[in-house]
Write a structure and sequence with these properties.
Blueprint (H helix, E strand, L loop, with lengths): L14 E7 L5 H15 L6 E7 L11 H9 L22 E4 L2 H15 L9 E3 L20 H28 L5
Parallel strand pairs: 1-2, 1-3, 3-4
């Protein structure tokens, strides 16, 4: 298995994670639902808060893409509660980890938070690619399935599942043993 990065230390009580894509209706809500379920199954839901957002505001307040919801539902997840929101650069001060789905999302988050707060918001490792924790292809991007068919959503869910597994292992170690690598 490749050497995956450590998680940044918590900035306060609990651990806050934000998952970010472009519109917050496909990739990041899928990751949010899967990570939230895995955090709950690991008994960490009282210590880890997970939410998602998009760098663009086109879909604010809307449910996730029906194909994302159908893919999650077919896999046994509850996709009904999600409502799209836009990433707020001011939130970085309260987040322990921001995981973005692709390089464009990374550039958007870094530039908007840098413009608002100054400095390099990625320097302390809190802003990273989601797939930096993927055991199959660390550092890869999560492709946007929006303009494709159902197979693209299934591919995203497979990436999310295996990456979330690694994240939860690291969260468990960090929050129970004080280390962030299994």
């Amino acid at each position: 298995m490749p050497d995956l990065p450590d998680l940044p230390a918590p900035r306060g009580d609990g651990y806050r994670i934000e998952l970010v894509c472009l519109g917050n209706i496909c990739r990041s809500p899928m990751a949010d639902v899967v990570l939230s379920a895995a955090v709950g199954a690991a008994g960490l839901d009282d210590r880890v808060a997970v939410r998602s957002s998009g760098t663009a505001g086109w879909h604010v307040g809307k449910a996730m893409d029906p194909r994302s919801a159908a893919t999650l539902t077919a896999a046994g997840y509850d996709a009904e509660q999600h409502r799209a929101r836009q990433f707020d650069p001011a939130d970085l001060a309260h987040l322990d980890l921001v995981l973005v789905m692709d390089a464009s999302n990374l550039a958007d988050v870094v530039s908007t938070t840098r413009a608002r707060a100054g400095g390099d918001p990625g320097a302390d490792g809190r802003v990273r690619l989601f797939r930096d924790f993927d055991p199959v292809e660390p550092g890869g991007e999560v492709p946007d399935p929006y303009y494709g068919g159902d197979a693209g959503f299934e591919e995203v869910l497979a990436m999310v599942d295996r990456t979330v597994h690694q994240l939860v292992l690291r969260l468990t170690d960090l929050l129970t043993r004080g280390t962030s690598a299994p």
